[in-house]
Design brief:
Blueprint: E1 63-66, H1 68-71, H2 77-89, E2 99-101, H3 128-137, E3 141-147, H4 163-173, E4 177-181, H5 190-193, H6 195-204, E5 209-212, E6 230-232, H7 241-252, E7 263-265, H8 278-290, E8 295-297, H9 306-312, H10 315-321, E9 330-335, E10 341-348, E11 352-359, E12 365-370, E13 381-386, E14 391-398, E15 400-405, E16 410-417
Parallel strand pairs: 1-2, 1-8, 2-3, 3-4, 4-5, 5-6, 6-7
Antiparallel strand pairs: 9-10, 10-11, 11-16, 12-15, 13-14, 13-16
Helix pairs in contact: 2-3, 4-6, 7-8, 8-9, 8-10
Amino acid sequence: MKEKEKEPPAPGPRQNYSVAVTARVLPLHPYLKAQEKPITNIFDTSKYGIFQLGNGLAKTPQMGWNSWNFFACDINEDVIKETADALVSTGLAKLGYNYVNIDDCWSELVRDSKGQLVPDSKTFPSGIKSLADYVHSKGLKLGIYSDAGAFTCQVRPGSLFHESDDAKLFASWGVDYLKYDNCFNLGIEPEKRYPPMRDALNATGRTIFYSLCEWGVHDPALWAGQVGHSWRTTDDINDSWASMTTIADLNDKWAPYAGPGGWNDPDMLEVGNGGMTYQEYRAHFSIWALMKAPLLIGCDVRNMTSETYEIITNEEVIAVNQDPLGVQGRKVYSYGPDDSLQVWAGPLSGQRLAVVLWNRGSKTATITTKWDVLGLESSMSVSIKDLWKHEYVSKNSVASFGARVDGHGCEMYIFTPSTVTHSAF
């Protein structure tokens, strides 16, 4: 989350990395043990950095809930406990949504006399340790928020120059996840401000997920793979079609840099917050899943509509996001007015492909993809399963496939070549 009062520092010099998709054999990711060659070779991951934290987290993108998009600063320990309860009672926890992440505004406005962070006595009177114990008792994990600056974005104490003390404190509380923001950063380059917290977290001996929220200012995909488990590639999302589509495009350019252990983060989900239509939210969730983005619910899970619940509990779409091959899907073809008819795709384990036909226009249209766009031989026979209808729409498509797609909507499929045994999808 980003401060509104201050502008971020001007980006420093950047190395001229190319992120163009090239025709090459997909290399195995560091944590992928299976010697499996994907069915297609057009999804380049050659820029993926070797993950350095070495604590085994983030083999797939993180899933859970974050307080900011719906509650902003209006949070307290009861909201967090009730959210943990709701994640369990709705079945979301069983689907993998296991991080309960507190965002900004949990602490007092100043540190105590010993220089330590202190939970807000009015909103978190029982303390974070007690809250972590409660969340853990539900089989879930607790996340907390700080900032790689003098203050957080809402002007609470930041952790810059306090990394060791704060990391020890978080670990002593039983924290499992740290979102680390970028406000009031004193003009110090993020490449210098974020590694100290990595080292401090490692030194605690506790396994803590490290989520860098650097807003994409210094292109963190180029360096953050050696620092954290995920890195924000964009400015903050808001609950609108314009914001969501813009952010999807910005995140897309960094696809070759994502993989098991470290993920591009286009910000949290807005599904269920009311600013978009059902079709737009379904597209939002589908594209985030395909892009291997963190799936962090941003609505009030205590009060969800049936449509919101339907979207965020689609197990087949979640399975695309959590696929162990860990290759970020990307935009592979677009055409039509303003390139509004788009094909996004990415390889999956089991020699399969996930394909999204996304209509960025306002009117219903047919979107067609040819096999060569997907890196498939034109003569290859493919079975196609619709992940929103939960049914096979074709058992033997050859050369191309098309479907009618509502305006601002998408359709999402699994393509399985006929030579491959069908999965249990």
